[in-house]
Amino acid sequence: MRAAGGLPLVLGLFALYAVLHARLHALALSAMVTVYLSYGVARLVSFVADGMPNAAMVQITVLELAIGALCLFALRKANRVAGTNIAVAT
């Protein structure tokens, strides 16, 4: 595994742990939003700077942005239900 793959791996393990501990849900979702959207946006910037990569890298970028967006949606929905606004700017 390359070094850059360690963060998503650890984050995924933390997210699985958080599934069993309700107090960690918002933290896990916030971390996933931050990591996956930042990876996706950074890749988009590199597309502009370095040119279009191969199809696999484009697919990975779309997947990272989709995961980040889904986690953001889940976090916003959970905050509305709980009546809080944890880590989400409105």
Account of the protein in words:
The protein is 76% helix and 0% strand. The longest helix is centred in the last third of the chain and has 28 residues, at 55-82. Helix 2 packs antiparallel against helix 3 (55-82). The protein is built from three helices and no strands. It has helices spanning 6-19, 25-50, 55-82. The mean pLDDT is 89. It has one domain (3-82). It starts with 5 loop residues before the first helix and ends in an 8-residue tail after the last helix. With 90 residues, it is mainly α.
Strand and helix map with partners:
Blueprint: H1 6-19, H2 25-50, H3 55-82
Helix pairs in contact: 1-2, 2-3
Low-confidence stretches: none
Percent range for β-strand residues: under 5%
Rg measurement, Å:
15 Å
Give a count of the beta strands, DSSP E runs of length 2 or more: 0
Average pLDDT across residues?
89
Oligomeric composition of the shown chains: single chain
Helical fraction equals over 70%
**Biggest β-sheet description:** none
Q: What's the overall geometry?
A: elongated
| Distance between the first and last residues' Cα | 37 Å
Q: DSSP helix count?
A: 3
Topology as H/E string?
HHH
* Secondary-structure-derived class: mainly alpha
Total count of domains: 1
Features:
about 90 residues, mainly alpha, single chain
